Amino acid sequence: MNYIRARLGLKLFLSYLAVLLVGVSVIWAATQIATPRAYARHLAFMEEQMGAGFMMGQGQGRDRGAA
What we know:
Layout: H1 2-6, H2 8-51
């Protein structure tokens, strides 16, 4: 224990390691909470758009077969 008290570099390393672990834990928890809701919201939006008949390119510009 005296070895840790006497070494500033080791104390700094351990403090940075602790901050890193807390930060990673917070980010992990936030993604576990937010990702399922965001995915469900995106999926519902896509299903709504597909059900309404909107697809990429439809309704944009002139109809090439009409002229």
